[in-house]
Design goal:
This protein is of the alpha/beta class. The protein has helices at residues 11-29, 49-57, 130-141, 157-166, 209-214, and strands at 3-6, 8-9, 33-37, 62-64, 100-104, 111-118, 147-153, 173-177, 187-188, 194-196, 201-202. The strands form three sheets. It has a six-stranded mixed beta sheet with strand order 5-6-7-8-10-9, with helices on one face. The termini are far apart. Residues 208-215 have low confidence and may be disordered.
Length: 215
């Protein structure tokens, strides 16, 4: 099965690029399942229901996020109505939303689980341990799906790498998001898990100064 993982979709330019490019990529590479990080998809900060609908209609199967998920306050009231939209699992449990989702590959119908976590190094907020909580959720998801994808939204390369090695052999892939800088260090870890420190971004070639300051 071929799976496409897309880094942070930023604003209208990112959505436009996604909608134009995704059908051709899906066809050329025979993609059966697609995950995209959308925490910056609405005006560069946050996401709305309309934007989620737009990206889902474009062919994305699951939407991950990170520290900007609540920037558009309207998402607070509707996130529970969008099962494909995730916020990091290790956010406080009283917050709305969910941290994982199980969908199905388009042709084969094989279950595909996606888990969204946030790093704690250089990240703000009262976050739970992504390692302990992530492992517990992976063990639960393994009862529902053999294919498990992890979006580790974080700043520090060391923390993302540590999580990749921690979950090696237990999940299909661990990829990082958040920095908007593609690391191009994709590899297969010793026990078979695919890994990349950061997928980069989908959007303008030159991010605004505001985006650089507040990513």
């Amino acid at each position: 099965m071929k799976i496409l993982l897309i880094g942070d979709v930023v604003g209208n330019p990112g959505r436009t690029i996604l909608k134009r490019a995704l059908p051709a990529v899906v066809k050329a590479y025979d993609i059966e399942y697609c995950v995209a990080n959308v925490e910056n998809a609405a005006g560069g900060f946050g996401v709305t229901k309309d934007v989620c609908d737009e990206i889902l209609d474009a062919g994305v199967d699951c939407l991950t996020s990170g520290n900007h998920i609540w920037d558009k306050k309207e998402i607070l009231g509707v996130i529970d109505l969008i099962p494909q939209l995730l916020r990091p699992l290790n956010y406080p449990s009283r917050q709305p939303g969910r941290g994982s989702h199980v969908g199905k590959a388009r042709r084969s119908g094989v279950p595909v689980a996606t888990l969204n976590l946030s790093g704690r190094v250089f990240m703000h907020g009262a976050l739970d341990d992504p390692f302990a909580l992530g492992l517990r959720e992976v063990e639960r998801l393994r009862e529902q799906a053999k294919v498990i994808l992890v979006d580790m939204h974080g700043e520090a390369t060391s923390e993302k790498t540590a999580l990749g090695n921690y979950l090696d052999g237990l999940v299909s892939a661990v990829v990082g998001t958040h920095t908007h800088v593609p690391t191009c260090d994709h590899r297969i870890l010793p026990r078979g898990t695919a890994y990349c420190t950061d997928l980069g971004m989908t959007g303008p070639t030159t991010p605004s100064s505001a985006s650089r300051r507040t990513r």
